[in-house]
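Progress note, project year one: complex with (R)-mevalonate.
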Amino acid sequence: MSQSSRLPGFYKQPVKKRLAAVAAATGLTDQEQAALFGTAGLQTDVADHMIENVVGIHGLPMGIATNFLINGRDVLVPMVIEEPSVVAGASFAAKLARAGGGFATSSTPPEMIAQMQVLDVPNPHVARFELLSQKDRLLDLADRTDPLIVSLQGGARDVEVRLIDESPVGPMLVVHLIYDTRDAMGANTVNTAAEALAPVVEEITGGRVLLRILSNLADRRLARARCLVPADELNFESEGRIFKGREVVERIVEAYAFAAGDPYRAATHNKGIMNGVDAVVLATGNDWRAIEAGAHVYAARNGRYASLSQWEKTPAGDLVGTLEMPMAVGIVGGATRVHPGPKVALKMMGVNTSRELAEIIVAVGLAQNLAALRALATEGIQRGHMSLHARQVAIAAGATGDEIERVADQLVRERVIRLDRAQEILSQLVDA
Ligand code: MEV
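Model obtained:
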């Protein structure tokens, strides 16, 4: 990216000007820009080959989160989502974090886990030892299933064996094949490897392999982000009430403690994180169900469902946030190869590896969490939501073009965000 991701006034510009600014900053060609209009470049004949029984294409808005500074690099982040306030929230929080140096991120190698369920094993403990002693043979066989990934320095890394003593069908062995899938999400690669290994696992254990499938608890493929927000950045005033930054830090830490201690709150807290995460996952054509599944099991990894993020006060009184979660995303294969929209989204972010993408996504999740907590712990969430919600209500009432802002402004002024009132205002506008 050729310039800062700070784009003051970006939100006030018309769509075409915004896209031109993003294109200039990230080097998008005319064709790539055109791909973002309408169906994001997805033609019905291509869609027809992506899934079954296709009858059409479903659209969602793509917005750009600004202000992100990640490991010292400016990034404009494409987000695909239907919910108002999410893109604005991420951009706002990224600006707060920017004042503290931006986001620092890291990740583990992109290792996926494929599971094999082994039943009817005569001597499970002995079979476990036997599998482990023949690890090299298993890894070698797994490597031969995807020479391309191996040539890219990926491939089979390890074999782990667990014994589940008690199950409704008796003891079972669970074999994990750990496989570095490089820049692919890797579901197909690891499922193929597990299927290839199954007969050998049966031979070694004397058992019967039933399931051979990846685990969405991708806890070998973690991404991490942290940020520091100087307390002074959190000073603000809302409807005549002054919130001092240091007080806001305390309130955010208290709000986090609620999510750390209560699963009912943790579910909503983590949903806020996933607002940011899923929007980038979707924009890049990745499997958001896989990410959701992994995130929530990871949140419960210590035996109780809890917050995925942590917020603390530093000795100097500033706010520091951390987020670690599984992030099995790819930049090659799947929809990223056939759908032009995700290709453009990846180019905008300038990512060269799946790890870079994973780290950006986690930074956005942390930003989204910060935006929600700051609002919830001070003025409440509704005030910020109101004007965006009002626009949607105005559109639902039939407003178009300029009418949308005029009807929405009136709804916000009256603090009545209702469809019937929007319809009344609109008919007055039309009559005038
Ligand atoms: C709404 O989509 C997300 C929030 O509920 C997240 C949270 O409560 O932390 C605002």
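The longest helix spans residues 354-376.
DSSP finds 17 helices and twelve strands in the chain.
No further modelling is planned for this target in the current period.
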